[in-house]
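[09:14] KT: can someone run the structure on this one? pasting the chain below
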Amino acid sequence: MNKVFIKHGIFLCFLFSAAQAYANDTLLLEDYLEVVLKYHPLIKKADINNEIAEAYNLKGKGALDPKIYSDFDRKRFDGSDYFSVWQSEVKIPTSLPIDFSLGYENNDGSFLNSENSVPDNGLVYGTINLSILRGLLFDEQRYNIQYGELQGLKSRIEREILIREVVFQATNAYLDWTSQNNSVNINQDYLELIRVRHQNIIQLFINGDSPAVDTLESRLNINSAEKLLLESRSKLIKSKQNLSLFIWNEDGQALQVNSDIEPMSLESLVSTLQELSILINPNFDLDPLIAKVDNTIQGLALDTRLEKENLKPQLDLKYNTILNLGKTEFDPTFTTNDYKYGVSFQYPILNRKTRGQIRINESFARQSEFEKIEYLARLNNKFEALISQQEIQENLLNVALEKLNNSQLLYEAELLKFDLGESSVFLLNRREQKLLESQIDLLKTYHTLGKTFGEMYYLKMGQ
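[09:31] RB: done, structure tokens below
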């Protein structure tokens, strides 16, 4: 395609008056996107997803946070101290099916339950909780850790999706602005050209070398050109308004594009977009929208794994070592004969709630798999279609450039005949209109090709 640009560069000078050397008032695509990525509110919103991801990871790790609690009960009635029970404990969860805890117990009273009787200085105990069946391979603590990681990954994926969408929309807005700006320039040049000739025709009429109807024909041509210019200016204003939605300053204020700010030339813009869109051997499995579906599937698999763990009977072993701190004086004593242990068992007989939830999760996971397959096919089809569309648009560009060349030659020939008195104002106007149509056709072809490269760039940003 670059050969096409070089081959027909001589005609682009006629078409794109904005293709002069860039001045300080030219807003390049690179600088424009830099401002968008730095200050746009939706980009800042997307960046907050990094903080959300870190928060989810922190929340997941919270499943292993040590916990401390203290419980104190006292009863006094009719002048008697019935009992005073005080127990404090620190529990230390782990990522294994074992939890540890360390506690202190000190109880007294006239009517204290005998099982709560302890030495005067209290008891220190250490506890080991071991899950034998349910929770041996997977439990809620490990679920919370992995769930936090998945939610954090999801937040980062959503950040990529949002940034890509903003950049894509911003690029399209810049392309539209550039096209409309060129359209105004073309119509402005055309109007100025026929206005100058209109004055010449009036002078010819005054000199008696041209009939009065020629002045009317020339004026009618000006009316049409003025209408086209006003319409193109209206579209330019709309494109600038759309462009302004993407330009913000560091204080969070939307900025307006000044009238003296010009875009880069359409030819240069399309070349830049072509370079940005080069995509070889794409792997759409990496696309953030696909990654989001994968994240959903992984989350459902994690939920299902926890539910399947709940299908198992719960059998927990609990063993307490006891350290006697002394009956009257502080005298820590430890013996293996002082201990407390327990076994707990439970199992829902039907387990319909758990089995139903597993079926729900598996159904949603299958739906997500089909969604992924369909979206992957859509991305691949879109890529192939854009490749074909690019080839067609490049061929159309060649045709449009040749058409412009031929229209220019015919116009120059008709102008020479008119100067020699061998043509009419009507025929000359027709040649000018055909030349204008060729310019607009070339402009539209560049714009469509730029859109195609923009779509390719969108796909590339997902790699």
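[09:33] KT: thanks! Residues 297 and 367 are 9 Å apart (CA to CA).
[09:34] RB: yep, looked fine to me
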